[in-house]
């Protein structure tokens, strides 16, 4: 776990639950329901949709959309789901692009925050191919400091895998982290941090940037 993120995660989840009772905006309600599950909440919904998308069209019709929400155990009325779907189905053709959906669902972040997140990603992505793998981590992340490695419970690879799992979706861990997943994860963390300055300091410390 990255320094600080577990605490922020808890704070953010509590905050999201609290705000849920106050908001009437359907998209905001869905966003808060995701964030109430922690930083990986939005990404997890993305994975649920990806599983729904049988034909790999990267789009969902209303039926798939509702099934994805239900599979992910989102508490949502049919009317509210219809309203959200309408908001995202910009051209009214009965399907939504789920990448666009996830980007809109992600808590908005300033340019400064996005830049520091990308700096951290680039530092991890040793090979520069836009995906972080265990191989990439060998060069940047020292597993030997990990308590489970020190007491012999885990191998170096297990430490790396656990590290990647932080950013990966809880339901479909493939041991690879894309820019999008990394961004989604930190959008969750970012939601619990009020000022850009503090967020940037936290990122710099965590990633030694």
Automatic annotation (TrEMBL):
Please list the residue ranges annotated as the EF-hand domain. Answer: 40-75, 76-111, 112-147
The record's keywords, sorted A to Z, are:
Calcium, Metal-binding, Repeat
Among Pfam families, the record links this protein to: EF-hand_7 (PF13499)
Give start-end of the signal peptide: none
Look up the coiled coil feature and give its residue ranges: none
Task: Provide the protein name.
Answer: CAPSL protein
List, alphabetically, the PANTHER family matched.
CALCYPHOSIN, CALCYPHOSINE LIKE
Keyword Repeat among record annotations: yes
Entry keyword annotation includes Metal-binding = yes
Gene Ontology MF term list: calcium ion binding
Under SUPFAM superfamilies, the record lists:
EF-hand
Q: Quote the SMART domains the UniProt record gives.
A: EFh (SM00054)
